[in-house]
Amino acid sequence: MLHKPELYRNTNAVMQAARSFLLNHGFTELMPSLLSPYQEPGAKHSVAVMGKNSLPLIEEINDASGNQVSVTGEHHFFLPVSMVVEKQLALEYSEKVFCFAPCIRLFDEFSIGSKKHLITFTQLEVEIRDANLTLVQATIQELLNAVGNEIEMLNLLDIDNTRVASLKAQPFPMLTFQEAIDQVRTDHEHGTKKDLSAEEESSLSRGFETPFFVYRYPVGVRDSIFHENEPELRSSQELWVVND
Predict the structure, then answer these.
(1) Are 71 and 21 in contact (CB under 8 A)?
(2) Is 182 helix (H, G, I), strand (E, B) or coil?
């Protein structure tokens, strides 16, 4: 287990390696938004209420249904979930952008007990105007290669060196979502449009020695922020890392 000094140092080194790569490849860094007039697709929570030159009126209500809070103020805003709206708007002014965005995501019914969702985390958001799948994958692979080189050079993380080396073993394999579930689900389950469970993801990733892409997710498995370039399929992809 990493103690706090090492955790801070290692996190900083990884962020700086990613930032240097993106800046050197013509990306513009955005500052994360704290408040937004837009509710992001998929967001199920987090509204900020502002008073008029003072705190809003906050009342706690405890009844049989549980604890509730009533807030009365002058204005309300949404808390950004992952800079999804803001980074796309920024592409009007810059062809390539990125942001280290703090994220807050409350669990929905599916996410509770999934063993693969976090409530708070910092996410590296990267957006390229008019990018195709090939360009996006190449950028991701080059970025991880740069991060792997930095980890290797500074001997940062208390992990098996084969994990670091796997970031540099490119190109990464590609699987469609259908090919992924074919490997981990029985025949009678194939007709269901549900995401892979944590156990299924672990089982699938153990078959690989390097990170790998999963793409062509069905509508209903990935949400509406992704384009539907083929009937019932989202133009979405994810990069998975090896799980011991």
Answers:
(1) no
(2) helix
Let me know: does 164 contact 148? Beta carbons within 8 Å.
yes
Tally helices (H) and strands (E) across the chain.
Answer: 6, 10
Closest by alpha carbon to 126, among 151, 93, 101?
101
Name the more confident of 23 and 108: 23
Q: What is the mean predicted confidence (pLDDT) over 188-205? A: 74
Q: Which two tokens stand for residue 144?
A: 């991880």
pLDDT at 47 over 80: yes
Output DSSP code: residue 128: E
Rounded Cα distance, 159 and 1, in Å: 10
pLDDT number for residue 222: 67
165-169: long-range contacts, CB 8 A cutoff, minimum separation 24: 166/209, 166/210, 166/211, 166/241, 166/242, 167/210, 167/211, 168/144, 169/209, 169/210
Is the distance from CB of 101 to CB of 82 less than 8 angstroms? yes
Tell whether the torsion through CA atoms of 22, 130, 144 and 134 is positive or negative.
Answer: negative
Confidence of residue 96 (pLDDT cuts 50, 70, 90): very high
Q: Kindly report the average pLDDT of the chain as a whole number.
A: 80
- Give the H or E element holding residue 195: none
Ranges 45-49, 157-161, 178-182: which has the least confidence = 157-161
> Residue 27, SS3?
coil
How many Cβ atoms sit within 10 Å of the Cβ of residue 41?
Answer: 12
Is 1-53+69-160 in CATH node 1.20.140.20? no
The 96-104 sheet, strands edge to edge: 28-29, 96-104, 120-128
Domain boundaries, the chain: 1-53+69-160, 172-244
Residue carrying structure tokens 């007709």? 191
For position 34, what pLDDT does the model report? 80
